Amino acid sequence: MKVTALAGGIGGARFLRGVKAALPDADVTVIGNTGDDIILHRLNISPDLDTVMYTLGGGISAERGWGREDETFTVQSELAEYGVGPAWFGLGDRDLATHLVRTEMLAAGFPLSDVTAALCQRWQPGVRLIPMTDDRVETHVVIEDAEGRRAIHFQEWWLRLRAQVPALAIVSVGAAEAKPAPGVLDALAEADVVLLPPSNPVVSIGSILAVPGIRDAVRETKAPVVGVSPIIGGSPVRGMADACLMAIGVETSAGGVGAHYGARRLPDGSPGTGLLDGWLVDLVDADVTIPGVRVAAVPLLMTDLAATVEIVRAALELAGV
Ligand code: FO1
Known about the structure:
By secondary structure, the protein is α/β, with parallel strands linked by helices. The chain has 2 domains: 2-39 and 46-57 and 105-135 and 177-319, CofD-like domains (Rossmann fold); 138-176, no CATH class. 36% of the residues lie in helices and 19% in strands. The protein has 12 helices and 14 strands. Helix 1 (10-22) packs parallel to helix 2 (47-57), helix 1 (10-22) packs across helix 12 and helix 4 runs antiparallel to helix 5 (112-123). The longest helix has 15 residues, at 93-107. The site of ligand FO1 has 16 residues, from helix 2 and helix 6.
């Protein structure tokens, strides 16, 4: 079976661990979000790609959900001694090697998709991890504070401000000019099932869909498209997705996000304007209905691998595969 999933960071990576365990023989392609990418100290850092790679490759810090296990932050401390930040972005010593390899390969002219494949040679994540695009895309957030109205990098808003300052707009800088990376459109067209894991619907899934061509490829695939709600009972399971949803005027609820993704077909079978054939929600949201979308309710907390496998199985059942 060919499974294609759009994935962001921690939530998406954890879900994908369940996909691998539930379908050990499946051919899984992950289209990874690169909107979180940031350049620090002239290093190209791709947080969501690394989170998927480390989580599926066995290098992730279980406690943090990002960065490496057994990590130290000596270089960052030394930089701080020189008064060089930012302090708000954890720069791990082991993680630094990944940033250095990626930066060197990009500087040598390799596209990000080749760089990602090379890094995955070491980590063997057991999936094909493709960045959404090889072009530079960064998510920036427009805020207004004492310094006036300005755009800051998503990571600064997310990590330094903890998304506590309202986002007046969330912008995928460069997305309009970006092209899907090689293999992305084929992976969507040739899939037997397309999954939208419980990643952040705005800055992760939304960023991937902002790359011209990808949204249409999801809508046009012959495969069933099933999403898993990142919101349970009105609250995000992790992270601050509510701050992102508020920025785009979407209600922080399983129904709100499901309606935001929209129905691929209307109840009468005519084409809809959305993406979903199925929407998996938690038991507390079992009353959610989205015209044209099959909704199923199961326990959605990925408390451990076994629980995640059950969620994946429910999503596949909803997809009818
Ligand atoms: N998340 C944090 O909460 N604090 C950090 O200092 C931090 C550093 C970091 C470094 C590398 C990396 O791959 C991920 C990192 N993350 C950190 C997570 C990251 O900000 C988020 O996973 C996504 O960008 C948002 O989903």
